[in-house]
From TrEMBL:
UniProt cross-references to InterPro entries, sorted A to Z: Beta-barrel_TonB_sf, CarboxyPept-like_regulatory, Plug_dom, Plug_dom_sf, TonB-dep_rcpt-like
Lineage of origin: Bacteria, Pseudomonadati, Bacteroidota, Cytophagia, Cytophagales
Protein name: Collagen-binding protein
Similarity comment: Belongs to the TonB-dependent receptor family.
GO BP, sorted A to Z: siderophore transmembrane transport
Domain TonB-dependent receptor plug: 142-220
Organism whose genome encodes this protein: Emticicia aquatilis
A Pfam family assignment: Plug
Membrane topology (UniProt): Multi-pass membrane protein
Signal peptide start and end residues: 1-18
Main location: membrane
Length: 793
């Protein structure tokens, strides 16, 4: 037995002594100019072996045979990682890329590496779609609106809210465009996901400070989403599968170098998974589909034509919201769709002048379906808005001037609502009067380079709005509240007759002065008019909320914005720092009277009040845009306050005519996004969000009547929800060896709300006999893991 042990020990020692070492040598150089990189580090097998290059960038290491993990690093350069198989002496040369020479991985400022300090624009953010796809997403669904909420000055009233609030504005004060098409409802599944197709988008720009003169019609901001241009030489296909939806995008040339088409579709029929996400989503049925397409035709060297189409459809059913009115319904079903189109002709007159002419048509039809108890009939509440626009811009560009002049005309036709009883014998048909309006505008703008340090952007937009007939207008006794008791007469207008007109100049000004090559200060001034608005008495507008045009009684909102900022770039534009402050005063904001009900009301002015909003804030942001680790952090202090006083009566004022917090007033917010690129196989990302809880109205007392308690509300928005915070995580896993292959795919694993914070979406009270109980509604109260598969061909 001892002999056997001795033989085994001898064989093991013989094997160990027979292990062969090989030389692993080579050079490490700069990618651009080939110069050697001295003292570059080579890490082998996670620190087991390693060394540094000499003054000529050369290294020579003695390593045992077998598989080794290699990591090559040099300060200021992007690291390089790979796996080698050592079975003989080998020589490998590495070229590292200087981070300053990289394309920007994270774009959260104006276009171009230095435009954030060179152009006279403030409050302009551009979010890269490439970056957005790496950030954590709710239930694996890439979401443009959620990505924008990671930027300073952009918030929402909750996790399932319909839209975003920008610098103290309401959701309807944002002009949302998709290839010039206005989006009236920007979310799917009642606010859980964005309606913008991220798979087909190429860029997202948000103007929350200086707004170019070509944009108008909204009081707070502009979000401009562009679809990717169809390819004219290569066939491309991409898509993915997630818990929420299935996606497919096809990009194909029809005539090489002349005509191409891009079609992207997304559909969700996975609502059976909703109870897994949150028990609150039980009894909910929800699905959606959207389709976008874009055609690009290069007619010749001077003329191009593009055409874009957008179709979106949603179905959402819940028993939580109950029926409407006295209709005995088993559930409430929301069925809404958008059908839109835009076409643009671009004519290059010469190398300095070009002309763009665009036509747009949009149709949004929301419906509320009420299945009657013990019947196959559905009572339908339907509304809609039709939008048609024609505009043309002439552009001139030279060394010192960038001039744009243009004209536009927009037609609105609004169906405020109609009740269609179907076969029901207990429900009466109701139709509210349709609204018609025309908005015309001219604009001119010039970006002037005054000197190497000073640049000026000056422009103006003149808009004129006409409320048109046919229609009737109810007049009221002067100095009395607008209600049924003060109604005195009815004015009748014929088709096309002007019922009321509003208009005025909307000046735009931006000034930039460079303190040095990396630092600039800016000042901006904006005035914008809004003639269309959503009227609602909910915190976040429902997809079926009513759109209302300005008329004899409802004046347009007029917003004046002053802003200033300091911008500084560091280390070859790798890092950016910005500090912006703003003050905005908006006249004629809309709020609702206590107990207001807009449903099928032919005279909504009796339910509305108008007043003022003042919003101000300070935004600080720091971002790293290139390198292995990228991301940004920002902090915003902001306030948004309303003051509504039309008279001394209870129904003519809110909170006794004093300033009160708007629904979306969240004084403090902090956001951090981090993306860690680990070679070609993995990247990790984290999002952290914190904000002050939004205001809500808490009963001040209770009234007991006939043995039942009823809450008494004195002032509006007198309490706040608990502070909100959330951490999200994403891990992208790329298949190895696919760098040069035509077919590429990767998996994305995400965890939304990592530590399961039960953030309150709202607080409500409910009466049970003589007792009043308060409840907290939580949408996402636990960690939500998800896995999605994505591919590209």
């Amino acid at each position: 037995m001892k002999k056997i042990y001795l033989i085994l020990i001898f064989l093991v020692s013989l094997t160990a002594s027979a292990q062969v070492n090989y030389h692993f040598r080579g050079y490490i150089r700069d990618t651009l100019d080939g110069r050697p990189l001295p003292k570059a580090s080579i890490n082998i097998d996670f620190g087991k072996f390693g060394g540094l290059t000499d003054d000529k960038g050369h290294f020579d290491l003695l390593l045992p045979s077998g598989e080794h993990a290699i990591s090559v690093k040099f300060v200021g350069y992007r690291p390089l990682r790979e796996v080698i198989y050592l079975r003989r002496d080998i020589e490998k040369n590495y070229s590292l890329r200087l981070v300053e020479n990289e394309l920007e991985e994270v774009i959260v400022s104006s276009k171009g590496a230095e435009s954030n300090i060179q152009r006279p624009l403030l409050g302009v953010n551009q979010l890269s779609i490439k970056t957005l796809r790496k950030l954590p997403a709710a239930i694996g669904e890439v979401d443009i609106l959620r990505g924008l909420q990671m930027l300073p000055g952009v918030t929402s009233v909750g996790e399932a809210s319909n839209g975003v609030n920008i610098r103290g504005g309401t959701t309807d004060q944002n002009l949302l465009l998709l290839d010039d098409i206005p989006i009236f409802n920007p979310t799917h599944m009642f606010g859980l996901f964005t309606a913008f197709p991220s798979e087909a988008a190429s860029s997202v720009e948000v103007y929350k400070g200086n707004t170019p003169a070509r944009f108008g019609g909204r009081a707070a901001s502009v979000m401009d989403v562009s679809l990717q241009q169809p390819s004219l030489d290569k066939f491309k296909m991409s898509g993915g599968i997630s818990f929420v939806s299935n996606r497919l995008t096809v990009d194909a040339p029809i005539i090489k170098d002349k005509l191409g088409i891009m079609v992207s579709g997304r559909a969700s029929y996975n609502d059976f998974l909703l109870p897994v996400v949150s028990p609150k989503l039980n009894d909910i049925k929800a699905n959606f589909a959207d389709l976008v397409s874009k055609i690009f035709w290069r007619v010749n060297s001077k003329n191009t034509v593009t055409a874009s189409g957008y179709y979106s459809k949603d179905f959402f059913q819940t028993k939580l919201l109950g029926a409407i009115g006295a209709i005995n319904a088993t559930s409430t079903q929301y069925d809404y769709r958008s059908k839109s189109f835009s076409a643009r002709w671009f004519y290059a007159i010469n190398n300095k002048f070009n002309l763009q002419t665009t036509v747009v048509s949009a149709d949004y039809v929301p419906k509320t379906l009420l299945p009657e108890l013990n019947s196959t009939n559905k009572v339908v509440l339907q509304s809609g808005i039709t939008y048609k626009q024609l505009k043309s811009n002439l552009n001139y560009s030279s060394e010192k001037h960038r001039i744009e002049v243009g004209v536009s005309g927009t037609r609105y036709d609004i169906d405020p609502g109609q009740l269609i009883p179907g076969t029901s014998k207990s429900v009466l048909s109701v139709t509210t009067p349709r609204e018609h309006a025309l908005e015309t505008a001219i604009h001119a703008e010039d970006e002037i380079t005054l000197s190497p340090k000073a640049t000026l952007s000056v422009g103006a937009r003149y808009s004129q709005f006409f409320a048109l007939g046919a229609g009737t207008v109810q007049t009221y006794a002067e100095g009395e509240p607008r209600d049924a008791f003060s109604a005195r007469d009815t004015l009748v207008y014929g088709k096309g007759q002007v019922m009321k007109s509003y208009g005025g100049v909307e000046p735009r000004l931006g000034v930039k002065y460079s303190l040095n090559e990396r630092t600039s200060v800016k000042f901006g001034y904006n005035l914008m008019r809004q003639y269309m608005q959503v009227v609602t008495n909910t915190t976040t507008p429902l997809p079926t909320s009513r759109w209302k045009s300005s008329d004899i009684h409802i004046k347009p909102q007029v917003s004046t914005l002053l802003s200033g900022g300091l911008f500084h770039n560091l280390r070859g534009n790798i890092y950016e720092f910005s500090l912006e402050a703003y003050y905005r005063l908006t006249n004629n904001i809309i709020d609702y009277k206590p107990g207001a009900d807009f449903l099928l009301d032919g005279h909504p002015e009796t339910q509305l009040l108008q007043g003022k909003n003042r919003s101000y804030g300070l935004e600080v942001m720091f971002s790293k845009k290139k390198g292995e680790t990228t991301g940004w952090i920002n902090y915003t202090y902001s306030r948004s306050m309303n003051k509504v006083y039309e008279g001394s009566g209870f129904g003519e004022q809110i909170n006794f005519g004093n300033w009160y917090s708007a629904n979306y007033d969240r004084p403090h917010s902090f956001n951090a996004s981090l993306i860690i690129n680990q070679g070609t196989h993995h990247d990790f990302s984290f999002n952290f969000s914190y904000s002050t809880g939004r205001p809500y109205t808490l009963p001040e007392g209770f009234i007991v009547y006939q043995a039942r308690s009823y809450p008494y509300y004195g002032v509006r928005n007198n309490a706040r929800l608990p502070d909100y915070h959330r951490l999200d995580f994403a891990w992208n896993i790329y298949q190895p060896g696919m760098k040069d292959k035509r077919f590429k795919s990767h998996f994305t694993f995400t965890v939304f709300n990592v530590y399961g914070k039960k953030n309150a979406y709202s607080v409500f009270v409910r009466s049970t006999g003589t007792a009043i109980n308060s409840y907290k509604l939580v949408v996402f109260g636990s960690p939500i893991p998800s896995l999605s598969y994505n591919f590209k061909f």
